[in-house]
Amino acid sequence: MQSQTIITLLIVGIVISKTLIGVLIYFLIRKNQLLKVEQLKLTTANSILSEQAICIHHYNEELKIAESFKTKVLSIASHDLRAPFASVEILLAIDDISLVDKEDLKLIFLNLKGQVARSRTMLEEVLLWTESQLRDKLENTENCNIRDQIDAVLGIYALEIQRFNIQIINSVNPDFCAHTHKGTLAFVLRNVISNAIKYGRVGGSIVLQLIDDQSDRWELTVSNDGEELSSEVLHNLNFVNSWDRKRSENKNGAGLGISLCKDLIKRIDGKMQFENQHGIGVSVRISFPRKAYQAVS
Predict the structure, then answer these.
(1) Residue 54 within any structural domain of the chain
(2) At 233, which CATH number?
(3) Bridge-partner residues for 286, per DSSP?
(4) Domain count within the chain
């Protein structure tokens, strides 16, 4: 009887111990699962923090680049806008203007007229660019006839085109319209065509054509038969916020327009690409989303 009691107690003890071990194992497994969940949360949080740190770093780099670019814009603009005022000061400093030779006076006023025109254009461009910095995308879009916009720009540079005996070949559909920001489109066209004239060949040609390759974008190409660009200049034009192409004789300009163009065109979902046409010259491809374009029937 006593031995049976001992056996019973042993069995009960074994059952209780196994139960306790089972409960202990359950809590250990449960705790391990909770630890894994917490570890996963920490890993996810660390991953998010790492991504945010990378984003913040990129954002800071973009801010530095933007700040540097803005400083350069203001520096160039303030320098070039002084020119007409300096000329006026020189003119006003003359005690008796009647003593100035008529041809010299004519030349002074001609130079002053050119300086004022360039300064006004630059001021308009900088103001447009400044406005664009206040918002992510430019609003106030409207239907713009591309051919009319091009013809208006060609009219502005009619004297230069005639002086350099440049042939204009404009094959853009006269009924083709874009729903976009008119001021920015005009600004981009003005700068691209202006540079095509400046760096074209005397007696050469400028070709403008609208390309529809059935992709999701329309493309306007402006080409001239001027000197091809070096790989360094081409890289700066396409991938850097400024360019340092040296101007030859009678090819004035601030070197600011293309940089502003690249910044502005992004705000109307456009793209700009410079290319060498080997043995021919240089072309600029300007593209926009297909949804922004329509042909008037």
Answers:
(1) no
(2) 3.30.565.10
(3) 220, 272
(4) 1
